[in-house]
Design brief:
single chain, alpha/beta, 9 helices, 17 strands, globular, binds adenosine-5'-diphosphate, binds phosphoric acid mono(formamide)ester, transferase, AceGlu_kinase-like_sf, Carb_kinase
């Protein structure tokens, strides 16, 4: 029987790995991703999609900043909403064109995600966005009050990334799913909003981790499986070292121990493992972390880091 599968598409599915996010690269990457998604749909699974936006939202806020003397800049949460629109548009075009017995009907929901105004993440920016720069350029941006960090491939701006509490527009996604649409929702983790004491919602400048938001969305839409599609086939213990060992079939208990022991890097594999753990711990059937080209095999249980509640099937 077909499953209801939430697929979280990582940066490699959206653009090239250098973070430049040129339009042609984005279109090429999304088209490739959608051939894999369409294959799952053709196999009878109902798919819900979410996606990252780190390179895109960073580039967009930078453009706002560079053009600030000419046109009024918009805040980061507006940029998140804009990237949901542009990436959702690419996904809709690509999925509707992908080879499948029937053309897909696809809808993108501009989605707000509730966060806690007191989340300590607002005081401690960790989320890398935009393209890489060299140190001199990064230092110039720092003089304007931004926070930049050195990564392996260069310097990148980092912004606050609060924990997602609730995907507020999940009911709209569910309504569209019930009408037969394949839905794209909570792109870029969702537009971060806080609830003020008078009950009104207010956008806040942050970028939510898309894997953690994918877990919250997956539970809201009652997905059976959460698939986190990235550019490596497994989460690995001892990553990059001589004793590197892929994590394959694993229970939440075993994986929680590995996570607590610090085996997965905080800016990359860590949130994916955390999202997979939270999903299964809170009642989801199964979570898988694998590379995009393996998502079909991952669902049939042959590849990937496959997280289950008890003894793996
Ligand atoms: N323990 C680990 N196991 C596997 N990959 C890891 C690990 N630690 C860090 N990584 C890195 O995490 C990357 C995937 O994370 P990320 O780049 O954030 O993905 P995406 O943009 O696809 O969401 C892999 O390309 C790999 O280099
Ligand atoms: N919002 C988010 O987590 O995007 P990336 O996965 O592209 O970093």
């Amino acid at each position: 029987m077909g499953k209801r599968v939430l697929i979280a598409l990582g940066g490699n599915a959206m653009t090239t790995s250098d973070g430049s996010a040129a339009p042609a690269d984005q279109w090429h990457a999304v088209r490739r991703a959608m051939t894999h998604v369409a294959a799952l749909m053709s196999a009878g699974h109902q798919v819900v999609l979410t996606h990252g936006n780190g390179p895109q939202v960073g580039n967009l806020i930078l453009k706002n900043q560079l053009a600030a003397h000419t046109v009024p800049p918009v805040p980061l949460d507006w940029c998140v909403a804009q990237t949901q629109g542009t990436i959702g548009n690419l996904i809709m075009n690509a999925l509707e064109q992908a080879p499948a017995p029937e053309p897909a009907r696809v809808a993108t929901v501009v989605t707000r995600t509730l966060v806690d105004a007191d989340d300590p993440a607002f005081q401690r920016p960790t989320k890398p966005i935009g393209r890489y720069f060299d140190e001199d350029e990064a230092r110039r941006f720092e003089e304007q009050g931004q926070i930049w960090r050195r990564f392996e491939r260069g310097w990148r701006r980092v912004v606050a990334s609060p924990d997602p509490v609730e995907v507020l527009d999940a009911p709209a996604a569910i309504a569209l799913m019930e009408l037969g649409y394949t839905v794209v929702a909570a792109g870029g983790g969702g537009v971060p909003v806080v609830r003020d004491p008078d009950g009104t919602l207010r956008g806040v400048e942050a970028v939510i981790d898309k894997d953690l938001a994918a877990d919250v969305l997956a539970r809201a839409v009652r997905a059976t499986d959460l698939v986190i599609a990235t550019d490596v086939p497994h989460a690995v213990v001892g990553f990059g070292g001589p004793d590197a060992k892929p994590v394959e079939a694993v229970t939440v208990r075993e994986l929680r121990e590995l996570q607590d022991a610090g085996h997965f890097a905080s800016g990359s594999m860590g949130p994916k493992v955390e999202a997979a753990l939270r999903f299964v711990e809170q009642g989801g059937e199964r979570a898988v972390i694998t590379s995009l080209e393996h998502i079909g095999e991952a669902l049939s249980g042959n590849i990937g880091t496959r997280v289950s509640r008890g003894v793996e099937e």
